[in-house]
Amino acid sequence: MGGSIAFQAAVARPFGAAITFYGDGIRTRSFGEPSPLEIAGRLQAPWLGLYGDQDPSIPVEDVEALRVATSAAPVPTEIIRYPEAGHGFHNDARPASHHPASARDAWSRTLTWVESHLPG
Known about the structure:
Blueprint: H1 2-12, E1 18-21, H2 36-39, E2 47-52, H3 60-70, E3 77-82, H4 100-117
Parallel strand pairs: 1-2, 2-3
């Protein structure tokens, strides 16, 4: 849910940066709002999306469709896919879904994204 909220916020406001760790879908409408795929071109904040290819709720085809859609945004965007990770790969409190190598890389990319878009 947090990843979807971060995306919606990045569309609604020109924050310095936003990051989505998976979320609850790309074609899915959440909280009465349009799906990320529908509004991707309206991002107002530099946005980084981190997705696991093994996530049954977010097909790789949807991630790639989002990559195309976000390329129309007037802000920097980047999508990273983790082939061996599923939903919740960053959550170390859930050993069944946690994927340490993907989590480490995603966290490193998160810090780099924040530092490059929110200097000082």
